[in-house]
Amino acid sequence: MDSDELRSEIDISMWRFIADVVLRTQAVAQQVGLGGSDCQFVALLGVHGPLTAGRLAELSGLTTGTVTGVLDRLEKAGYARRVRDATDRRKVLVTPVPEAMATLAEYHQAHGEHLDAVLRRRDAAQLQVIADFLAELSASGSSSGSRDGGSGTTASSGS
């Protein structure tokens, strides 16, 4: 397979993977009584730890007003709480509730085990390529909510 064919295959596989993750997240969200955006915010808190509402708005690409609504729902459902920053009392941090995070982790356990099994079949050099690839994708701004991912292009040529 030549480079163009490989890039095309990777592109298709990435879109399939993204769709699978979105659909799986939506299914988990419904099972635990959250919305899809709510689950994404819980994931952001799981990855980044406590964040301000403003930082959550930046990471998600949503308005601060929308973020406030999501946080209200997460707080009411017991998945997050607002806590004053110990070093700067003017700041309020949104923190994940560990027990709720553990509950969500149970829903993702099979996926985590599959990921671990797939990664264990790779050697250190292959793992480094995968890690670099994913880090570069994440750093591109693709998760910032911008339509062009910071690249000046759209994800679909039909847009």
TrEMBL record:
Disordered: annotated span: 139-159
SMART domains named among the record's database cross-references: HTH_MARR (SM00347)
Source domain of life: Bacteria
Domain HTH marR-type: 1-139
Protein known as: MarR family winged helix-turn-helix transcriptional regulator
Organism encoding this protein: Pseudonocardia yunnanensis
Taxonomy of the source species: Bacteria, Bacillati, Actinomycetota, Actinomycetes, Pseudonocardiales
